[in-house]
Amino acid sequence: MREEAPLNIVIIGNGAAGTTCAEHVRKFSPDARITLIGDEAFPLYNRVALPPMLKERIPEARVMLRDLAWHDKMAIRLELSCRVTTIDRTARTVVDDKGRIHPWDRLLIATGGRPLPLALEGAERATNLHHFQYLRDTRALMEASQPGRTAMVCGGSFISYELAEALMERGCSVHWLIRGSHFLRRVLHAEGGAIVDGIARSHGVHMHYGVEIAHLDMDGDQCRSVRLTNGTALTCDMVALGIGLSLNTDLAKAAGLDVRKGIVVDRHLQTSDPDIFAAGDVAEFEDIWIGGPNLMGTWNNALGHGKVVARRMLGEDIAYEEIPEYTTGMFHQKMTAFGVTPESVGGVTSTWRANAEAESFRQLFFLEGRLVGGVLIGADTSERKAYKEIIRSRAVHDAAAMEALLDPRPKSAANT
Ligand SMILES: Cc1cc2nc3c(=O)[nH]c(=O)nc-3n(C[C@H](O)[C@H](O)[C@H](O)COP(=O)(O)OP(=O)(O)OC[C@H]3O[C@@H](n4cnc5c(N)ncnc54)[C@H](O)[C@@H]3O)c2cc1C
């Protein structure tokens, strides 16, 4: 009997999705040949741990999740500082920036996203302008944010919030510039934004809403002050940006795969070419909880995608069915978001309840009366588990029942 050749698996991107996929392919297939290609210089590290590293609550060593020895032990060929430049679907190969050709039977694109640049004169040469996506960014931010310095933080979403909090904790004077009317304005009701505003101000952050940087005043390669769209000028020692990600879809687009905002995949995370998969931040996947496409930039989503792709590549009939969640500290409070928010899908209605004195806020999102997601601030974040059970039940709620869901979830239910 003729022996089948071992499956050749190539994974582009060694972040959470890519490395998890490699690990789970090995778990279920001792024979598969696995090549993991990443353009950063490090094996998998924990992006979620970059804010605690910036706050110096943990050392850099605790951010690292895998080392070279682990890849050797797992027989995963790891190519670091190596960028894939082309996917050839006819030859079933990828080509890297060193001109090497890697053949595949199954291919995973897990390339994540890169920070959006600030489109202003001087930004490209400003060495005191920082992003917060990679380990190298975190090192640079730590170097730049010495106590007593003044930092501008731009953006109205999670990364800008992490920056504002961490730079305050490092002893900087922080101006947080938010283009919209409040934090996370596409998700949170204004009353939720007001709670976040109060929390940030109580820690000394200078809040500015409805503004963007209009002009960078440059002195050589240093931005010395910024002028805002409302005319205000603010001197600064550094500018930190959390203004969004551009998903790394270029390889998929050039290879003729379906791409919208992300790389389009079905519920099995297969692209329009069934031997090519996409996972993690870059994947626009068919979300069974909304019955439509979704993009989810969370750590758990990347891990969950990686596991499903591994098993699907090996022939299992498996789909992605997790409800994603994102939990983070918020100065002295906590915040958790779970499931779908109005940012990811249209037609969502919501109910909310704010308690300014207790600094607590909860908002729940519904599609045709079914709970599909929510945000909790200053509440017991473990309550998300009970809410996720309600999402799974697909129960339809009338207005009174929607309102009643805003009551804190019983502890026993939250812990089931
Ligand atoms: C500061 C920060 C804090 C965060 N906090 C949280 C949190 O509290 N909770 C949460 O759930 N999520 C959080 N996230 C988001 C979470 O980290 C991401 O959703 C997750 O890491 C995405 O994993 P990924 O594998 O899809 O992509 P990435 O981790 O982006 O990995 C993709 C990798 O592919 C590489 N690559 C791209 N193109 C190529 C190419 N052509 N060739 C080779 N390599 C390539 C990239 O350089 C990168 O190394 C945070 C993110 C950041 C930056």
Note down, in words, how this protein is organized.
With 416 residues, the chain is an alpha/beta fold. The chain folds into three domains: 8-112 and 248-313, FAD/NAD(P)-binding domain (3-Layer(bba) Sandwich); 116-244, 3-Layer(bba) Sandwich (FAD/NAD(P)-binding domain), CATH 3.50.50; 325-414, FAD/NAD-linked reductase, C-terminal dimerisation domain (Enolase-like, domain 1). Helix content is 24%, strand content 30%. It has helices at 16-28, 50-54, 68-73, 135-144, 158-169, 190-202, 250-254, 299-313, 384-393, 399-404, 411-414; strands at residues 8-12, 33-37, 76-79, 84-88, 93-96, 101-103, 106-109, 113-115, 129-130, 150-154, 173-178, 206-209, 213-219, 222-228, 233-235, 238-241, 245-247, 263-265, 276-278, 283-287, 292-294, 325-330, 333-339, 349-355, 360-367, 370-377. The chain has a five-stranded parallel β-sheet with strand order 3-2-1-7-19. A hairpin with a 4-residue loop joins strand 14 (222-228) and strand 15. The radius of gyration is 22 Å and the shape is globular. Bound molecules: flavin-adenine dinucleotide.
